[in-house]
């Protein structure tokens, strides 16, 4: 018989696991890893009758995507064009970024799997006599290592021609040049830190769902057990 066990610690671990997976996925897909040097915004015919702003804009560059301004639409609300610059894996600008994409993708796949499984830990607490929390915590630790490898390799690709076009000739491996880091990079770092926190916290979730108080509730015949 399935016993639905909900504790404060197990629920918090589940929510954190889901948040971490989505955060890493969104960061990976974003083009806001690098914010390029300011570029002038000027219309093709020099006509400013629309009253649009002539302030410089900053193009952004991701691992496989980019955002730039469309010159003939600069006064439109939809003046930005975002999308992948690489049509396939081999067209990613740097070999280091290709390795980054592989490691991040592997880590995110593991995190998404754990996030999906974590929803069912309220009803299933063990697999083949092993705690599902401990197994998931181990997987999150492995995912965190993949994410760290990807984030370490990413700055090594700042010397590629694509990054130089955005960041100026002073850009090189681990040197930003005229660029700055975007929110996606910081989100990926924050998600990596939270991944290890989730891995550690999974042990607390396992302790909470196998406590003596939970066992007493099960022995009393309760199928729904909620403990703070």
TrEMBL record:
Keywords: Fertilization, Membrane, Transmembrane, Transmembrane helix. GO terms for cellular component: membrane. The chain crosses the membrane at residues 12-35, 96-120, 132-154, 183-203. It is a multi-pass membrane protein. Coiled coil: none annotated. It comes from the Eukaryota. GO terms for biological process: single fertilization. It is found in: Membrane. Pfam families: L_HMGIC_fpl. Belongs to the LHFP family. This is LHPL2 protein. It comes from Grantiella picta.
């Amino acid at each position: 018989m399935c016993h639905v066990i909900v504790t404060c610690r197990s629920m918090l671990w589940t929510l954190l696991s889901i948040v971490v997976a989505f955060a890493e996925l969104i960061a990976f897909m974003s083009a806001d890893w690098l914010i390029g040097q300011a570029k002038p915004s000027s219309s093709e015919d020099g006509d400013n009758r629309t009253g649009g702003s002539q302030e410089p804009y900053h193009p952004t560059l991701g691992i496989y995507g980019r955002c730039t301004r469309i010159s003939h639409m600069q006064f439109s609300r939809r003046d930005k064009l975002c999308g992948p610059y690489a049509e396939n894996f081999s067209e990613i600008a740097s070999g280091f970024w290709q390795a980054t994409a592989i490691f991040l993708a592997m880590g995110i796949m593991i995190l998404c799997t754990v996030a999906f499984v974590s929803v069912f830990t309220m009803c299933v607490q063990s697999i083949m006599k092993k705690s599902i929390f401990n197994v998931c915590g181990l997987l999150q630790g492995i995912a965190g290592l993949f994410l760290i490898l990807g984030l370490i390799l990413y700055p090594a690709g700042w010397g590629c021609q694509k990054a130089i076009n955005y960041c100026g000739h002073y850009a090189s491996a681990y040197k930003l040049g005229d660029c700055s880091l975007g929110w996606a990079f910081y989100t990926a770092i924050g998600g990596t830190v939270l991944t290890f926190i989730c891995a550690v916290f999974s042990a607390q979730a396992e302790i909470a769902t196998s406590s003596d108080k939970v066992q007493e509730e099960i022995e009393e015949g309760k199928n729904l057990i909620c403990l703070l």
